[in-house]
Write a structure and sequence with these properties.
Number of helices: 22
Strand order of the largest sheet: 11-8-7-6-3-2-1-12
Largest sheet: 8 strands, parallel
Radius of gyration: 26 Å
Shape: elongated
Strand content: 5-15%
Length: about 550
């Protein structure tokens, strides 16, 4: 009897030890990264594994009670920061700290992926005290991979101060369709090899700052003028064309081991995917991206609440299931659903009833764990809890500010007015005569007035004011018109018959200049950052050379 009690006691102690060692392991434990990832996923319930595939946004500057419930009760894997969360930079840092604190209290102590869209240039979701930068097309105009590297590095360094450890950049969409206003200056240009090389440099810069890079929008959003937020764009290019054009940057980036790729809500009917959005297509995500290209990192959906996904799938919950089944590892939702939302309940029921789906979710959770263990630990990782004093002192990054001014200067491109015998530039105040500055950005007028101290200004270039503007324009010798897009094009055209020197100061994409071949001169700066306006007027005056090359062949 004594021996029996001894062995029972010994067995119970051994079982307790083994079970305890399994469940006491957590994210902070040392050891082989892949083995620990598998161990952590084995310790997860179905609910916890499924929750790791969720990346949720919320509305407002403060974290909503609902997003906190998803973190504390469900242990979701990530959160996405949108522009509506970022009015106050230090408050955002506090919010990130609060969200990570809630996540780290879970039994496995797994931190959140905290992501945003800080592409540079036009797309800058985290505003406040962060740097305004010249953007991808300016990098394409400069042509230097080092400019891409340092752009990624300084953008990443600012995000790291705020506790943001993942950035949905670089954008490597090819500017194939000149009417693609959705992409426009977000692209490096229309050369796929250059886009791949510059995207790789940008990725490596972000990684040097500790931030996880994410290339987008796979397989390519640049050959359509439609926006997948509202509709499902249809791109008619056959696969052979995509392989040698849109997919080249992804082929380069996969070889360079980019950690993550975002799938786009785009239809390619002349491929095997047919009408299925690429973001929900196992052919695009598994057969091509995983098997043929060899990508090993995470695949993340673009916001599933975009009509490009939900309209085709029939419902948001069905889109979420198809996204995971087709090969996405993370589903992103811009708003926080209720805890009892059909998205969650349907996915969890599918896990319990469909072994194939359950295995797919657990495989995704394992990939996510590997990503987190590789990038969210160690000395170079982004701190979970931001230091508010460092954030306040380091934003905008002082070294970054100097660099971005240099990049803006290197990228300025003279598109018209440098021809021999018809040279408009340099345009000195004496040569310009009476100057009228027309635009809508305050940042345009400040350096414009500094360049031409006696210039008049017109700050509302809309159709309804054309007649009044023309009265001012008739008194000018030179009109410098700031053109960001096709808004104001009618106003610009109205200046044609006045017999005045008309110069366009193009910001964002310069493709609209195709519509006004009669203008006397044009320069392009690719963004409305203050540094870009300063650089543009410096080139116009002849104080610095125009080194930028037009990035659209």
């Amino acid at each position: 009897m004594m021996h029996r009690r001894f062995f029972l006691s010994f067995f119970a102690a051994l079982l307790s030890l083994c079970t305890g060692s399994l469940f006491s392991q957590n994210f902070t434990d040392p050891g082989d990264m892949n083995e620990l990832a598998s161990t952590l996923v084995k310790a997860m319930s179905d609910e916890e594994a499924l929750a790791q595939t969720f990346m949720l946004g919320w509305v407002g500057a403060e974290p909503s009670p609902l997003i906190l419930d998803w973190i504390r009760d469900r242990h979701i894997g990530g959160v996405k920061i949108f522009g509506w969360n970022t009015g106050d930079t230090l408050r955002l840092a506090e919010t990130v700290g609060a969200l990570q604190t809630a996540a780290l209290r879970g039994k496995l102590k797994i931190p959140l992926l905290v992501a945003t869209d800080q592409e540079g240039g036009w797309i800058r979701h985290v505003k406040g005290a962060t740097s305004e930068t010249p953007g991808n097309m300016a990098i394409g105009a400069s042509g230097y991979p080092r400019d891409a590297y340092l752009s990624g590095y300084y953008i990443g360094r600012e995000l790291a101060l705020l506790g943001i450890n993942m950035n949905f950049a670089p954008t490597v969409d090819i500017y194939t369709n000149r009417a693609s206003t959705v992409i426009g200056p977000r692209s490096f240009g229309n050369d796929p090899v250059r886009a791949g090389l510059l995207g790789t440099a940008f990725m490596k810069g972000q990684q040097a700052a500790g931030v996880i890079a994410t290339a987008k929008h796979y397989p390519g959003h640049g050959d359509t003028d439609l926006d997948s937020h509202g509709v499902l764009p249809r791109i008619d290019a056959p696969f052979e064309v995509l392989w040698e054009r849109e997919l080249i940057p992804y082929r380069i980036l996969a070889r360079e081991k980019i950690p993550a790729i975002m799938s786009g809500h785009l239809a390619f009917p002349n491929t095997q995917a047919a009408a299925t959005p690429a973001s929900l297509s196992s052919w695009f995500l598994r057969d091509i991206l995983r098997d043929r290209i060899g990508f090993q990192g995470l695949v993340i959906t673009d916001d599933l609440m975009m009509n490009g996904a939900t309209t085709w799938a029939g419902s948001l919950s069905q889109a979420a299931k198809l996204a995971l089944l087709s090969g996405n590892d993370i589903i992103m939702l811009s708003k926080t659903p209720n805890l009892s939302d059909p998205i969650w309940t349907n996915l969890l029921n599918s896990m319990r009833q469909e072994p194939v789906f359950r295995e797919r979710v657990r495989d995704a959770a394992r990939r996510i764990m590997v990503m987190k263990l590789e990038h969210l630990r160690g000395e170079t990782a982004v701190p979970y809890i931001p230091d508010l004093r460092k954030a306040e002192a380091g934003l905008p990054d002082p070294d970054g500010s100097r660099f971005f001014l240099d990049l803006a200067a290197r990228s300025v491109t003279v598109l018209k007015g440098a021809e021999e015998g018809k040279a408009v530039f340099p345009l000195t105040p004496e040569k310009a005569g009476n100057v009228l500055l027309v635009g809508k950005y305050p940042e345009f007028f400040k350096p414009g007035k500094a360049a031409f101290p006696n210039a008049k200004s017109w700050g509302d270039p809309r159709d309804i004011w054309i007649q009044e503007l023309l009265n001012y324009a008739r008194q000018a010798d030179t009109i410098i018109f700031c053109l960001p897009d096709d808004e104001g094009m009618n106003v610009l055209r109205s200046l044609r018959g006045l017999g005045k020197r008309v110069i366009v100061f193009s910001v964002l994409s310069p493709v609209y200049l195709d519509q006004v071949p009669w203008i006397d001169g044009a320069i392009a700066v690719y963004s409305y950052a203050p540094e870009s306006f300063v650089a543009g007027f410096s080139v116009m005056l002849g104080r610095i050379p125009a080194l930028g090359k037009f990035p659209l062949r």
